[in-house]
Amino acid sequence: MRAALVVMALLWLTVAGTLITMWPLDRLAASLFIPYLAWVSVAGMLNLSLVRRNPEAAAGASASA
Fold first, then answer.
1. At what angle do helices 34-53 and 2-22 cross, to 10 degrees?
2. Hey, where are the domains in the chain?
3. What is the 3-state secondary structure (H, E, C) of the chain?
4. pTM
5. The predicted structure's pLDDT at residue 13
6. How many Å apart are CA 16 and CA 18, to the nearest integer?
7. What is the largest distance, in Å, between two alpha-carbon atoms of the chain?
8. How far apart (Å, rounded) are the C-alpha atoms in residues 42 and 60?
């Protein structure tokens, strides 16, 4: 589960970077990434809450992976 947090962080940074890069070029296209960035943020927070509530499962999943 902790590896998923890293993946979510990288995805969030990629989406945010794309949004920032596209903003000067096409504001409509960039603004369409805002809901996706919000969804990735919500999914990341849900994943973080699972890791915090189940520390043994998170450690076991990382060790077996």
1. 160
2. 2-52
3. CHHHHHHHHHHHHHHHHHHHHHCCCCHHHHHCCHHHHHHHHHHHHHHHHHHHHCHHHHHHHHHHC
4. 0.79
5. 98
6. 5
7. 46
8. 24
The per-residue pLDDT for range 12-59, each reduced to its tens digit, is: 999 999 999 999 999 999 999 999 999 999 999 999 999 999 887 766
CB atoms within 10 A of CB 30: 16
Amino acid letter, residue 47: N
In whole angstroms, give the CA distance from residue 21 to residue 15: 10
Structure tokens at 4: 């998923």
Give yes or no for a contact between 37 and 16, defined as CB atoms under 8 angstroms apart.
yes
Query: Rounded to whole angstroms, how far apart are CA atoms 11 and 9?
Result: 5
> Per-residue pLDDT for 1 more than 80?
no
Is 13 within 8 Å of 37 (Cβ atoms)? no
